[in-house]
Amino acid sequence: MIIMVIITQKGEVTVFKMGPQAFGKILYPVHAFFIDGLLIDTGSRTAHRHIKNIWKNYSIHAIINTHWHEDHIGNNNYLQNTRNLPIYAHEADIPMITNAKDQKYWLYERLSWGIPKGSRVLPLSSKFQTDNYTFEIIHTPGHTPGHICLYEPENKILFSGDLFFGTRITYLRNFETFGEQLDALKKILNYDFTTLFCSFRGIIDDPKPKIRKKIAFMENLRQKVLVLAEQGFSEKKIQKEILGRENYMYYMSSGDFSKRHVISRILHENSLNKH
Ligand SMILES: [Zn+2]
């Protein structure tokens, strides 16, 4: 598999986009970001050969992982061993980063991103200080238990990890929750930012209307699911009515990205709320 890395600059932030290449484009990209000595996520292990030469030119003082997934921590081990860097993450995701190679990875994940080696990680507190900026660490669980966003008020920027992804997401992965992600999206709207740095989509200008659109989409979806459930529809029937059949993402990921997960999580979380 050929891996490609594209570097762009947005204000104070250097953006590293990486992923498997096809027809001159990056398929399934992941982004890492550099600002003021801080590297936010370390990309995938499959990009290692390319990225290690690029990062030689950057004076990285610390690393923060937005969450434990393999495409965000792939070069932790290398950077820590060669530069003795401190790595930070939310405490809930630390065990998975420390024991990265023992986690369960789907075939498509292993092929696209590779399996990361473990690294030593310190717990984040609510603020993180670099030479020139103070970042606010916002706990935004749902995609993983310890997922975080980073907010920097002077530049009015927010690093959103895998929280945003897109406005109309019709699948959930095996481990994800629905309500927590919805709450997390509402939570970040309370911060004053004009640029979003999304790990999947990269730079998003004027992001708040898009986040609001995503929230409305999710709330509407939940409402529709609960109405049909109230009428006695089965999970399968609800999926067929509202989201239709599984698409190529389901087959590509061996069932990890699934519309059925959306329906079952909404119903399950609703039943928990009732009790
Ligand atoms: Zn992720």
For the record, the CATH architecture stands as 4-Layer Sandwich
Low-confidence sequence ranges: none
Note the total helix count. Answer: 10
Distance between the termini: 49 Å
Overall mean pLDDT stands at 94
- How many independent structural domains? 1
- Strand residue content: 15-25%
What fold name stands as the CATH topology?
A: Metallo-beta-lactamase, Chain A
Q: What's the short version?
A:
Helix content is 34%, strand content 23%. The protein has 10 helices and 14 strands. The strands form 2 sheets. Strands 1, 2, 3, 4, 5, 6, 7 and 8 form an 8-stranded mixed β-sheet that branches.
Descriptors:
alpha/beta; six-stranded mixed sheet; 275 residues; Metallo-beta-lactamase, Chain A; eight-stranded mixed sheet; 23% strand
